[in-house]
Queue: 4 jobs
Job 1
Amino acid sequence: MAEGVQFEGVTIHESAYVDLPCEIGLGTKIWHFCHVLAGSKIGPDCILGQNVVVGPDAVIGARVRIQNNVSVYKGVMLEDDVFCGPSCVFTNVVNPRSEISRKDEFRATVVRRGATIGANATIVCGTELGEYCFIAAGAVVTKPVPAYALMAGVPAKRIGWMSRAGHRLGPDLTCPETGARYCLTNDENGLRPEVDQ
């Protein structure tokens, strides 16, 4: 970390590196061997597990949980309340080659509010993950994901729907924990709650 720089109300482990300038919100915890690169913005109350790399210029919302061994590259935006499981992968180019520089071809990846990405899942750049979607462990996402969709497999396919509380929905589209009811949207973009929660 830059000599003498303090972030008020932020926990940064002594083994972590934080390059300046960057923004880190109140209550955020950055653990062992992390590296936050310059230009990155991290919201309040986030947790970055061991060996997480952010940036440069990545954007992370509030209350995001990033488990061990995840890299959040430039062009990746994680909205509020996103969960990234251990060793999940974000790519930044579609066709990488070691001998060809493609830094001007990075594609943006947007992960909408409340989405969950399982351990070892891969999110191919240029995709958008809808709010509160759930990506199963080991899945490879190659196309945009609708809101509340449950995705699994290689390549990932929708195998069901999930509630905001993280439960798989049955045919009645009612959350077994909260009783919240959902309905399909007309535009094929996923589900929406019948009553805004």
Note: The first strand starts at residue 11 and ends at 12.
Job 2
Amino acid sequence: MSESAVLLEYRGQIAILTLNRPHAYNACNTDIRHGMLEAVWELSNREDIRVVILTANGKGFCAGADLRETFPNNVQMQLHKEYEPTLMGLRRLNKVVIAAVNGAVAGIGCAFVAACDLAVMVEDAYMQLAFSKIALVPDGGITWDLVRALGYKRAYRLMIEAGKLSARECEQYGLINEVVKEDALGYALDWAQRLCALSPVANVLTKRVAHHAEELDIHGTFAIEAELQLVASRSADCAEGVTAFLEKRAPQYPGK
């Protein structure tokens, strides 16, 4: 992993994953693509981590793909081999993933935010779907999120006109959870500490249920809930939660 382009720091049960090309507004180049892929792989194997925060250094969160790099001969292959494993990996991590958006986010950067479970954005930040400015199609799965959040007509217009969503609009449409005046990372760290006190088993299984619920009908969702409830009910976390409730104390979840 490139130490300069992507940083991975551990603070107890929290991991901070940072895009670190502030001079280029963290535009995705080869170093960021490869660094993110390696970082997500490492995180997937860390059983001690309960919350991951994805953030960026500098004034912008991510300016999208770095157009100063040579355009790939086969962008389809690049998306499948370099972006998809990272973006789907974030969605599938058995941890809570929070995006701490410190500034403007555009292009593929929007897909990074959308791939996180939760998100906080500073109030002067915005999300811009800039693909059409260079005659490209939105990618990284972002169309999936936008159509569901905004509805087809609003999402389509936003994408073809390279539209912009303010932090408040992102909150309104459910693309993020919170808007803060400043210091998105500080807010995310406090939030992560609170989440670490919750049951990791329940957090992860609920994440799986929620993802399935986006695709299934009520009967399929009921079945997945029942299946994962069986897993949860047999966990040490559940036993601790019930015991703590009966003893009227705060639970200390072992995470298994």
Note: The first helix runs from residue 30 to 44.
Job 3
Amino acid sequence: MTRATRRRLEFVIERLLFVCAAASVLVTVGIIGVLAFETVGFFREVPVTDFLFGTVWTPLFSDRQFGVLPLVAGTLLVSSIAMLFALPTGVLAAIYLSEYAPSSVRRVVKPILEILAGIPTVVYGYFALLYVTPLLQQVFPSMSAFNALSPGLVMGIMILPLVSSLSEDALHAVPNGLREGAYALGATRMQAALRVVVPAAFSGISASFILAASRAIGETMIVAIAAGQQPKMTLNPLESVETMTAYIVQVSLGDSPSGSLQFRTIFAVGMLLFVMTFALNLISNWLRRRFREVY
């Protein structure tokens, strides 16, 4: 291959890579643009304060109310249950795999955990509805068939590999010199793991927490199947709730005509969901940079 041919080939490859990078940026800008355009049209008819601070959400009824707080409450309730299950379990699994498990066990257990991330979420949804909910009803007889607890626990199982894998990678990346220094000072393996390794890897662990929270907040099928479609302001996990993503699914598959105010509610809810997850990602990046500088 001549030098001129190599230069032409490199030029083509460079332009192709640029097109791929620009396409991803343009797609993102297009999605945000559509959300923003439809959301502005929605807020021309509904005051922003009524949307953000209202406590009644009935946009599909004759007496229409557009207070989004019940959807936000349902989303945060289910996501909080998932995080309460996934965070401690994932971190403990990561500490075991990084600090205690032999390399042969680590090579087997870690891929098995990551298989959970490949299961379709609709399978998790029906697992929550048909298996976990009846099991929990034996413990809580007053639990509704659609509730926040069952999808929250199953969602915690779904995001468990995200927490454990990212946290284990962060722990595994801590230099062995820190561990050896702790052992030289008389620390046990547990003391070295909890007081030296975990603080040194806290940037990666905290980033896994935030990314898992973003994943839980944006989850759709599990809550659409098992949480119900009753938007209400409640902290009782035994009651039926509706999340922001479940409402978007409900309207998208319903009879609301395109361009109507009811149809534009999904763009307003989607924009709010985008802002929430974007804020969590910014917090994740800030925590990663902050604790990297500290440790």
Note: The chain has two domains: 3-44, 69-294.
Job 4
Amino acid sequence: MEKRTLRWVLAHEPIEIFIRAANRFARSISEKTDGAVEIEILSCEEYAKKYHGLDRVDTQYRYELMSQLEAGELEMTQLYTTTLGSHYYKDLLAVDMPFVFSDHDHVARVLDGEIGNSLRDGFASKTNAQPLCFTYSGGFRVLPSSKKIENLSELAGEKVRTGSEVSAETFKALGCEVVPNLLIEEIGAAIGDGRIVAGESTYPRLYGSEQTIQPSKTAKAVINTEHSLFLTTVLINKDLWASFDAELQQFMLEAAHEAAIEERREALLDIEKNKARLESDGVDVVYLSQDDMEDMRKRTEVVYETLDSMFSEGLVQKIKQA
């Protein structure tokens, strides 16, 4: 097998959420190919400095990595599935629908089965990028908030940062004032200066870096809604993928699946660690009552009707029934 090195650029912060999958993939593919294929794992800053001569990058640069991947300027990256769905392939937003997953076993059946394969193939048909697997970006979404909102009615009328058409419709259904034009990296600052009261995030993201939320400084509470899943997608340039023989493609898919499984398991452990840290920092984790959670589910059912035409026929129902 021809020796080659593939660059995997980690686009987003906090890097510890993403680097585990890359490291596991690198080990696995090296073993499967007897060292013929090596993975050079780079942070966005390292990649920009080494290959573009840039001393620093802004947030927008991270969101341009998809264009660089499609152009063949880099081989692999890992991007928010929500971003990919919003800009390239709407069907990916189906996995963002409110309460579409019942638990993590349900998630695995979808992502690692026929539906996940179909979503990856569909995305590849629209772009010059081949998805290899889906990984968590911290698991189910929660709401860091500047107010200790203890019941669903208190959320109505508040400004909530949303990250896609799906989340915007979700929080409109709850009576919130949605603020759609903030990057996730801005949530902490926006809570701090009052532009928003709350924004969607995940437990492992809360303490990640200066670009993400610092709950002990900006949030008084985290509302444990767990209303949708925050995913990333591992991508490889499609032209490069097509140049691989069937054996190498199979090795790559196997390594990606192994990496995804490990990353999801680690993400769940991170959730418990971050809950404990929030408690020690005096940030309340608020669990809505069973009645409130049931009310939230019922009120967000309208999102399925509102956005039904956005997805391939029957896709959302297949996900729910998987």
Note: The chain is about 45% helix and 20% strand.
